[in-house]
User: Which sequence fits this backbone?
């Protein structure tokens, strides 16, 4: 299969099913996912929990094998040339890659030795990475005692030991406090500036994707629902987003009332417990606000704040996946229970 | 065996060894457990040696080879624990996405386990000597006994690793320990000579790898070594260890296919 060397990742029609177990049907984690990622960019795989982001990463890093479909990473087939792929990539999983009983430096040296570097080269490489990630202070303490943010830096450093051309980061900031998260963002932006390094990042934080990624693939239910730069994705949505906070809403009543307002389109109502949210698109925000407020009040519907905003990735997701980000995340959590 | 494979394997061994040394509790228990057994069984069953038909002069000399093999068996049952920790933490994912041979990951950990078993074996022989056991076979006899314990350990550590990689659950390892190891101990000649156990136990014990290893150690450390016993039992143990080790490498690949 001829492939353009400009692509760091070139995946075609990936399907991955897992046995459901105990008589339940198989789980289709990937359902025909096709993806290309340009070399030298930061690419975000964005989607709610359970969308198939991690599975995609596992297939691309040779950890898991797709049920069908093909993928090339750094120009090598992930199945037939798995060893070559492994030499070209770094993988930072959702867990930690570090042995808690070894120090960060020992972890780095061992990772380098396992990648075939000589003893002296491994020590030097570990020293470089310790300096680069500001780990000097912690380099000779047990990795198990590091704070969440520092440990995550070590994980990323471990991913870079083999000077990969493609670095996979699976939810690099999940579970970090805001300060550690912005430190990690700065780190990833710095990596992005490096020559010939492609960063593939999965996240379920819209803000993270928006800030870091040059290109985005929005994944839902194992399929790609939209792809492009954050700006181009937002630009495909015309006009503004209008949202109204609702108190104990009757969803069907709210829908029909809002639907009758001529200035609104793509009306949707999301109910979560006692509160809810009306979301719609409009080409004339200021006028729509007044029209919606009077329509709701005329129908006796209680509401809270009304706002108008420029399109966000949440709106992009809503437009493409047919449901809001927050609601699908909640739905997945309920399924998992 | 390429030099790459040897480097990888020795790095993996080194890692597990460092981990082991940094968990002094685990190491301490690994040493103290056989000592307790030796002293406990040695005292409780000491009168067994006076029973007609026992065959050996004193129970401690009879017991040391049995405790030596029991020790590696119990130790080996837990060998897979490290893999379960690695799977849970994410270290395994990083290893499997790096260009390391899968067999190095398994073999490196096995070598560390064998090292631990060797140290345990030395302690058993040392404490046994202090408690009055006699090793008429000399240094050679002791080395043969330790060698047999390592063959048995290789088989059982590999079994534990394979189960750990397939079941990915600590409780499965507790299962090995209680369902296999404990009955295996009593269905062998580790604690009691074949002449004193019911005939069905004697029959079963002949197929028990623990008995093979104990027989090697007993004859090797006795005044008159029966080298045909050493040779045949060693052959059986080597074959068993090779098969189970091969299975544990396959289990690593099966684990990856399940991802």
Assistant:
């Amino acid at each position: 299969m001829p492939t353009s060397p400009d692509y760091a990742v070139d995946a075609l029609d990936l399907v991955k099913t897992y046995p459901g177990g105990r008589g339940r049907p198989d789980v289709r984690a990937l359902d025909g996912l096709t993806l290309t990622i340009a070399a030298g960019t930061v690419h975000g795989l964005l989607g709610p929990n359970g969308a198939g982001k991690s599975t995609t990463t596992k297939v691309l890093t040779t950890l898991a094998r797709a049920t069908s479909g093909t993928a090339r990473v750094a120009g090598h087939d992930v199945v037939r040339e798995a060893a070559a792929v492994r030499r070209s990539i770094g993988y930072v999983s959702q867990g930690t890659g570090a042995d808690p009983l070894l120090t960060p430096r020992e972890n780095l040296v061992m990772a380098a030795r396992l990648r075939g570097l000589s003893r002296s080269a491994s020590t030097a490489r570990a020293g470089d990475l310790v300096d680069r990630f500001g780990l000097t202070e912690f380099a000779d303490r047990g990795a198990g005692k590091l704070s969440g943010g520092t440990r995550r830096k070590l994980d990323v450093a471990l991913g870079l030991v083999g000077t990969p051309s493609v670095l996979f980061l699976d939810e690099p900031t999940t579970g970090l406090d805001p300060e550690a998260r912005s430190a990690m963002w700065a780190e990833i932006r710095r990596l992005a500036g490096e020559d010939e390094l492609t960063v593939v990042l999965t996240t379920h934080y819209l803000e993270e994707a928006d800030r870091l990624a040059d290109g985005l693939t929005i994944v839902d239910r194992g399929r790609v629902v939209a792809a492009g730069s954050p700006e181009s994705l937002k630009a495909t949505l015309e006009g503004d987003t209008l949202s109204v906070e609702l108190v104990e809403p009757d969803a069907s009543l709210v829908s029909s009332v809002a639907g009758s307002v001529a200035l609104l389109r793509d009306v949707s109502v999301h109910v979560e417990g006692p509160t809810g949210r009306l979301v719609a698109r409009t080409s004339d925000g200021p006028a729509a606000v007044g029209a919606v407020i009077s329509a709701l009040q005329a129908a006796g519907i209680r509401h809270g704040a009304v706002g108008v905003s420029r399109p966000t990735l949440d709106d992009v997701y809503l437009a493409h996946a047919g449901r809001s980000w927050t609601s699908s995340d909640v739905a997945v959590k309920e399924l998992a229970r | 065996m390429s030099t790459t494979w040897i480097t990888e394997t020795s790095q993996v061994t080194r890692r597990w060894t460092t981990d082991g040394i940094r968990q002094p509790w685990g190491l301490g228990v690994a040493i103290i457990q056989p000592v307790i057994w030796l002293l406990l069984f040695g005292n409780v069953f000491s009168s067994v040696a006076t029973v007609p038909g026992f065959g050996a002069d004193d129970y401690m000399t009879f017991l040391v080879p049995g405790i030596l093999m029991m020790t590696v068996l119990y130790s080996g049952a837990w060998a897979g624990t490290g893999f379960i920790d690695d799977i849970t933490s994410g270290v395994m994912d990083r290893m499997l996405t790096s260009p390391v041979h899968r067999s190095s990951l398994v073999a490196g950990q096995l070598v560390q386990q064998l090292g631990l078993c060797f140290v345990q074996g030395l302690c058993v022989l040392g404490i046994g000597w202090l408690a009055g056991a006699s090793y008429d076979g000399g240094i050679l006899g002791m080395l043969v006994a330790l060698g047999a314990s390592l063959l048995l350990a290789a088989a059982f550590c590999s079994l534990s690793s394979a189960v750990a990689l397939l079941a990915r659950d600590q409780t499965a390892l507790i299962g090995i320990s209680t369902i296999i190891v404990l009955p295996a101990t009593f269905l062998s000649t580790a604690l009691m000579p074949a002449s004193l156990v019911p005939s069905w136990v004697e029959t079963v014990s002949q197929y028990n790898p623990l008995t093979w290893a104990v027989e090697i150690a007993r004859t090797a450390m006795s005044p008159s070594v029966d080298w045909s016993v050493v040779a045949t039992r060693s052959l059986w143990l080597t074959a068993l260890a090779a098969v189970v080790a091969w299975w544990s490498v396959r289990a690593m690949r099966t684990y990856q296919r399940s991802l």
